Amino acid sequence: MTYHNGNNGHHDHALADVDEREYETLIIQGRGKLEGMSYHSDAAIEDAVRVILKQIGENPEREGLQKTPSRVAKMYAELTAGYHIDPDALINEAVFSVGYDEMVLVKNIEFSSLCEHHMLPFMGRVHVAYIPNGRVVGLSKIPRIVEMFARRLQVQERMTVQIADFINQRLEPLGVAVVAEGVHMCAVMRGVKKAGATMVTSAMRGVFRDDPKTRSEFMAHIERG
Ligand SMILES: Nc1nc2c(ncn2[C@@H]2O[C@H](COP(=O)(O)OP(=O)(O)OP(=O)(O)O)[C@@H](O)[C@H]2O)c(=O)[nH]1
Ligand SMILES: [Zn+2]
Hints:
Low-confidence stretches: 1-37
CATH superfamily of the largest domain: GTP cyclohydrolase I, C-terminal domain/NADPH-dependent 7-cyano-7-deazaguanine reductase, N-terminal domain
Strand order of the largest sheet: 5-2-3-6-7
Helix content: 25-40%
CATH topology of the largest domain: GTP Cyclohydrolase I, domain 2
Structural class: alpha+beta
Mean pLDDT: 86
CATH class of the largest domain: Alpha Beta
Largest sheet: 5 strands, mixed
Bound molecules: guanosine-5'-triphosphate, zinc ion
Number of helices: 9
Distance between the termini: 52 Å
CATH architecture of the largest domain: 2-Layer Sandwich
Radius of gyration: 21 Å
Order of helices and strands: HHHHEEEEHEHEHEHH
Strand content: 15-25%
């Protein structure tokens, strides 16, 4: 839909210059992968950033800001690349049959994401454990799975659950545990301004949910740092 201001056919604001179909195409062009692909800029995002710059009282044409709209557009392509990752390509058949049924734990996986409420970063660490049921996944794939769900607009709870459910579906293990610890810039830089507060979320599936001993073994591992 386009909006006209009614007098000379000019649009009210820059975003309205792009109709919806065009806008979708631009979004698709703007997508990026986590690596191995350059990020394209997105004209509609650039226009929107120029509007924001003007509205906060800045001059988008001044030297330091001239390239900012295209930088921001590329930045969003990178920070939201997780929407466009193909989970099958990510796993790349790196699921192996192994007769190992003890806990596999990958801890201190760093993540950064954007909160969906303010589009400000939240970042921290994720710890992932599972107990295989005949199948294990390539070690590097666990941080990649975390990235796929972090590089979207998120709430930390949903990111945590998505990581757990994805591993649960792909490996059908005896259990999965995911704990995320995040610091939210929307609570640090603005609003309540609580710099020291960390949010901890968890998702437990299978034996981690049903068996307190397995769960506390996992918690003991991650509390050790
Ligand atoms: N549960 C949860 N809340 C989040 C997350 N990221 C941001 N929030 C919160 O989402 C809430 C949005 O609340 P609103 O009252 O709609 O927004 P607001 O007026 O900006 O709120 P304040 O931050 O309290 O100033 C805030 O309490 C944020 O701290 C997250 O990952 N999980
Ligand atoms: Zn927020």
